[in-house]
């Protein structure tokens, strides 16, 4: 259940960040409201996750998955270009999160 809450936190944060771009500096109120609501849900779910998952581990997963998913959403929905260096960098981020969760004693809970 803890990782489900973390997944919800990540997905709503990705939604909120994507909505923030669409809000055009908070001048488009529906998108601005979606941004605020998305972040509120994301941080609430993250706070529940931190009850049982170590902070460093949760944040590594949160930030790593968030970077990759936001980049993918920007590529699909906003036409952002991802060059080879960006893709390699994201692969390294994912690898780092996997190594941390697989081999580090920091992930023990």
From TrEMBL:
GO terms for cellular component: plasma membrane. The chain crosses the membrane at residues 32-50, 57-78, 84-103. GO terms for biological process: glycine betaine transport; xenobiotic detoxification by transmembrane export across the plasma membrane. It is found in: Cell membrane. The keyword Cell membrane applies. Gene3D superfamilies: 1.10.3730.20. It comes from the Bacteria. Keywords: Cell membrane, Membrane, Transmembrane, Transmembrane helix, Transport. GO terms for molecular function: amino-acid betaine transmembrane transporter activity; antiporter activity; choline transmembrane transporter activity. Belongs to the drug/metabolite transporter (DMT) superfamily. Small multidrug resistance (SMR) (TC 2.A.7.1) family. This is Multidrug transporter.
